[in-house]
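fold-stage: in
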Amino acid sequence: MTDHRTQVEEMIADYRRSSQRLSEVDEELASIEETAGDERGDVSVTVGSGGALRRVWLAEQVYRTHSPDELGRLIVRLSATATARIAERTDAVLATVLPSGSDPAALRVDSATSAAAASSVTGVSVPNGSGVADNGPRNSAAEPEQDESLEPRSWLRDVGAAERDR
């Protein structure tokens, strides 16, 4: 009977160690971030676990040196670079807990889909500005001024509304 009790206690201890290690890996994966910037230092993006875009930083002069299309392509390229780095780091972390010969990338693809749905962009930074860029549409000189709302504005929401109105 004593051997049986010892085996059960060892199994419980193994379970607790495994559970603790998996919890540590989960925290480590959730905290992974990578930042990629352009050569001139005008733009940087930070991507988090699962490739979720967390931050876009734009230098003040970026609007004078890049057209909107160029800026968009640059942000997409930098996001892809940071996401590739995230994938490498994620695979390295997963490899520490997976059985030998396992493919961390296969597991990462499944978990990245879940993480991307749970994460969100935390801000767009503009130096010497308000701290968060409001890239919403501006009134042209021909348009009358509209009353400012206390509702927070998001250029993403404005773009979505414009698409629906088409």
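fold-stage: in (second)
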Amino acid sequence: MAGRRARTGRGWDASPPRTGDAADPPRPRRGRRAAEQQADEPASTPRDESEVAREICLRQLAVRPRTRAELAGALAKRGISEQVSAEVLDRYDEVGIIDDAAFARAWVSSRHNGRGLARRALANELRQRGVDGEVATEALGELDEETEAATARALVDRKLRTARGEPDAVFRRLVGMLARKGYPPGVAIRAVKDALAAQSAEAAEFAEQIDADALAEAEGELDRDSRPVD
């Protein structure tokens, strides 16, 4: 039987066309006139810096309310000039989009009710966000001592439900917890002492031995000594 001849047609075993073969689609040739026209076209106009600044601010404000200082910092990180930043932020001040006083009041209410933070911790957070001292003081003034003491007691009562250990160890842990939330030594010690006295006979006996005033004074002195000197 004669050998079979290899298929060389355009079927499934046809060889792909080589570069430059007739099967290749012709490439369009660009003339000199087309190249010159493209070179003469103006480049895309850069976006207005004020427009970019406004978009940055609106994206920041869409996440949560911001202070003027926070927005100024965000604009500086994106390379917005101080002049344009001031113009945009001044305008936002005028129309009420930025209101540091309202921000401070909302921050104090939210963080105190939600996290149980005391005035000292809240003042530090407002300072970190660039709120003016007088504005912060006014907002913190809405949180009176009675409310702060009641919140401290509620925090202790909640923790006592799952607290384990000897009364003295529990006492130290709870006072430390309140201190981290910004409560003064006197408020923290009295809140824990009163809560322990109401918990059990053993805890009440321990609480009776606590001189809250003397201990608060000692803790206050240690706190003052540990603060950095300006």
